[in-house]
Amino acid sequence: MSNSHDEHAQHEHMDIPRYIGIFLVLVVGTILTYVTSQWDLDHYFAGANTLLALIIAFAKMSCVVLFFMHVWWNSKLIWLTAVAGFCWMAIMFAFTMQDYFTRGNGVFNK
Amino acid sequence: MATHNNDDYHQPGLQHQFDTMEQQQDSVSIGMWMFLVQEIMFFGGLFTVYLLYRWKFPMAFAAGSNHLDAFLGGLNTLVLIVSSLTMALTVYYAQKGNRNMQVILIVLTMIFGTVFLGVKAVEYTDKYNHGYIPFADWNKKTRGAADHKNVKHDSATEHKSDGKEVEHEYKSATGVFEWKDTKLAEKAQKEGFLTEWEKIGYFSDSSSIPIAERKIDPTKFESKVRIFFWIYFIMTGLHAIHMIVGLGMMAWLLWKAWFNTYSAEYFAPVEMAGLYWHFVDIVWIFLFPLLYLLGRHFLAGGGH
Question: Mind giving me the DSSP string for A54-78?
Answer without folding.
Answer: HHHHHHHHHHIIIIIS-GGGS-HHH
